[in-house]
Amino acid sequence: MLSSLFGELTPQRLPDVAAGDGSVIALADDIVVDASPAAAIRRHFADHRSDLQRASAMVTLLDPSRLWASQVLRALSDATAEPLQRLNLRERATLRTLAVIERALVPRRGADALRVYHADIRANAMEAGLAQEEIGNALAEGSQLTAVIVGAMQPHALVALLRSLLQATRQPGWRCPRLVFILPPGAAALRQRILEQPWPARVQADAVAEPLACAASVWNCVLEAWEAATPAPQPCAHPPNRQHESDPGLPQALSRLIAPLAAGEGVLACGIVDLDGGGLLVHQGRDDADLPGVALALCAARQAHQALAGPGGRPDETLITAGPRQTLLRALPGDAGLGFVALLDRQQANLALLRFKLLEAERLLC
Is pTM, for the whole model, over 0.85? Predict the structure, then answer.
C-alpha cells in the first residue's frame, strides 16, 4: 500500500469518480505502523528518491498552522479531476490514526506531473510520543522543493519550527535543495530572521511575503517558487492557432506598443509574451532582468489560476510582489493570445499610471 502512494505511477489515468457536489472523491489506503511512521517513509524514499535528478517532481507543503495546505490539495484535485490520494498511518496496537498523508497530482504540459504532498498529523500522534514535525520533515527531505506556509504562529512556535528545520536540514539524509517560507504581509523582520539562520550550504532558503486570501493565491506562490527553482521548459516552437505567426507586421506594432512603457519610471524590463507558450515576442529593458524567466513563471501561474478557477476564470492580470520587485502579466485585448509582461521596481513604479499607459498603447493593435 505504501508503494502505491509513493511509487512512480504509470501514465495511465485513474477513473474520475465524482462526488455528489462535483468534487473528486479521494482514494485512501491504510498502513499499519509497527515502529516510527517517519522511518517507514524514509525506508521507502531510500529506494525511490535517493537521486532527485531522476526522481519524480515533488513538492511538500509544511503548514504548522493547518490553515491552507489541505485546501490547496483539495482545490488542485478538483481543478485537475485527479482523485486526491490519502495514506492513513495507523498504530498497530490500537489502530489509531497517527497521520494522514495527502497527495495531489498536477499535470504539466511537456513535463511529468507534479506531485504535491501534505502530512496532517493527528492529536493521537502527539499522545503516542511522535513529534509533530517528524513526518513532515521525512516527506520534505526527499522533495525538490519544500514550501513552509507560516500563518498566525506564536513566537515560541516559530522558534521551534526554525530549530526543527535547521536540525532536519543538517541530517545526512536531507536531500531537498530548496526551502521557501511563505509569510504574511508586513513580515520583513521575520523574513530577515529566517534568511539569517545558518542553513547548510546545500540548502537554499528564501522567504516571500504574500497576502494569502484563498487556496489559489497560496498555490500560485508555491508554483512561482517551483518555477524559479527548476529549469524552465522551452516555449513551444509552433503554438497552435497563433495569429502572430502569420502577421509579419505584428512585431513592429508590438515594439511600438512597449516603447513608451519601457521608458516609464520603475520599469526594469517589459515585453510582449505568448500566453500559452511563455515565449517573448519583443522586449526592451535591462539585459540582467531575466525577463524570459519571469514571463515563463507568470504564464505558468496564470494557467494554474485558470485551472483552479475553472471555466470563465481566466485572469486579466497577474501581479506578484517579491521583496523589492514586482512582476506583472496583463492579457492584451483580442484573441491572439498575447500578454504584456513587466519587471518593476516596487518603490519607484506607478502601477496605476502604467496600466493607464498600457490601455492607451493597446490602441496600436486595433
Answer: no
